[in-house]
Amino acid sequence: MSTEIVKKIKKAAVIPVIEIDSVEDAIPLANALLEGGINIVEITLRSSKAIKCAEEIIKNVKSISVGVGTLISADQVTSAIDIGVDFAFSPGCNPKIINLSIKENLLFIPGISTPTEIEIAYDNGCNILKYFHSESNGGLTYLKNIYKPYNHLNLKFIPTGGVNLSNCLNYINNDFVLAIGSSWIAPKELIKSKNWNLITSNARSFLKKIKNQFH
Ligand code: 3PG
Fold first, then answer.
1. CA of 115 to the centre of ligand 1 (A)
2. pLDDT digit string (tens) for 18-43?
3. In testing the pocket of ligand 1, which one of 68, 133, 166, 202 has its CB within 8 Å of the most ligand atoms?
4. For residue 128, what is the enclosing H or E element?
5. Architecture of the domain whose range is 2-210
6. What is the full DSSP assignment across 150-194?
7. pLDDT-derived band at 92, boundaries 50, 70, 90
8. Could you read off the pLDDT of 8-18 as tens digits, one per residue?
9. Full-model pTM
10. What are the structural domain ranges in the chain?
11. Ligand 1: which atom is nearest the Cα of residue 70?
């Protein structure tokens, strides 16, 4: 867990979760996040253009670290590695994807929401887990309770799903929270309407709220 990218995720504290389907929006989006102080992003693979968008950012905006999300197939693992992503997420916990990613040396963070999934992820070699869908599952209280039996394993979680400006403080200041994921900073409507200023301002607001209190 001491890789540079894990340190960067921890330092960033929040990973914007992005749904984007227009390649021309990729670079302006990355620049808007950087302008707001965020140097890390997750591009979810939920549109035919998503991988191209991630590639555009990787090629042209060197100071932002790019991961992909919703990685659910072996082909997507190959595409993600081909374009040089720094990390990858999935909402679910698929041992086939975990094992392929480990083999290819890709930091893959599977989604968990039950003790069984924690055990599957851990047994397959993962120490960093996305807790999804955080707010619907019971937020931090539920995570704390299901993690109790595994505390000694020193796992780290990235709660995601329903995490926004108003509830983000619930998650911080817990050793087992590596960072939080949120689409609140750059929701797809703001990207579609090319509202880069508001995305920058959202990034600033989020960081202002959490930075002094994180870890
Ligand atoms: C994800 O893909 O990780 C979630 O859709 C992000 O959840 P949010 O939109 O509630 O932030």
1. 21
2. 999 999 999 999 999 999 999 999 99
3. 133
4. strand 128-132
5. Alpha-Beta Barrel (3.20)
6. GGGG--EEEEESS--TTTGGGTSS-TTB--EEESSSS-HHHHHTT
7. very high
8. 999 999 999 99
9. 0.96
10. 2-210
11. 2
